[in-house]
Design goal:
The protein is an alpha/beta fold. It is built from six helices and 16 strands. It binds fe (ii) ion. The site of fe (ii) ion has 7 residues, from loops.
Length: 245
């Protein structure tokens, strides 16, 4: 299950442009709990919190613990690494971690640059990612991170995308085994291919942005999450789930 950009606050009633983010995350979790499938892992691709507070990370932890699943997290531009790490380095959470499950390797990547909304995967992080993949016997790889490695066709959003997305995608392509890449940040859906790599964005568990907009604009779409099925033969099936209030 891919969840992203919950933007939680210390205040349980904290809202982002009119949406109480703790409530909308809970509505997503309630929807999943009532669904007829069970996730094996949860991927959370950043912007866990909105208000730079330790209490918001505690809220994130408390909301997700009842899932009783391993939860792989990566930071987003709204996260504070020093506050996020104490929560996410403790099981069942993990921080920019990798895990082999059957034929698949999952790898979380840090794409954040301190003090900047836009992202970049540092040389060091790109080398770490390559090493993890090269040293794994898994036949298929899924990478997850916060920033989009491709332009979204939205002028304002593309100014805060990933500055070295082309380089990252080219590196992943040459590693041959990467089948999927999932990201957040864009608060809208995306599902396309880069060569043989399935590129997926999942809308936020709170407010969405209007796709294709030149200027910043919020969309009236509800919270969402994504089901991603990784098949033993490398095939990727996915379903985007909108959660109407
Ligand atoms: Fe976000």
């Amino acid at each position: 299950m891919h969840l992203t950009d919950p933007h939680l606050f210390a205040d349980p009633n904290g809202d982002l442009r009119g949406t109480v983010t703790a409530e909308s995350l809970q509505s997503v979790l309630d929807h999943y709990n009532a669904a007829d499938w069970r996730a094996h892992r949860v991927l959370v691709t950043g912007d866990l919190i909105q208000d730079d507070s330790e209490a918001a990370y505690s809220r994130f932890r408390d909301l997700l613990l009842p899932l009783k699943l391993r939860i792989h997290c990566v930071p987003g531009n709204h996260d504070v690494r020093d506050l996020m790490k104490p929560v996410c380095f403790r099981p069942p959470f993990s921080y920019c971690a990798w895990e082999e499950i059957g034929d698949w390797l999952l790898v979380g990547v840090d794409s954040c640059v301190s003090g900047q909304a836009g992202g970049e995967v540092s040389n060091e992080e790109l080398e770490r990612l390559s090493d993890v993949i090269v040293n794994s016997a898994a036949r298929h790889v899924m990478v997850f991170l916060h920033h989009p490695p491709i332009p979204m066709g939205s002028r304002w959003l593309d100014t805060v995308g990933m500055s070295n997305g082309d380089e990252v995608l080219e590196r992943l392509r040459t590693l041959n085994r990467v089948r999927a890449l999932a990201f957040g940040h864009v608060h809208q859906a995306y599902d396309d291919m880069y060569e043989d790599i399935r590129i997926l964005a999942t809308p936020s568990t709170c407010r969405q942005f209007k796709p294709g907009s030149d200027e910043f604009a919020v969309d009236d779409k509800p919270p969402a999450y994504r089901r991603i099925e990784l098949k033993p033969d490398g095939q990727v099936n996915t379903e985007l789930v909108w959660v109407d209030a």
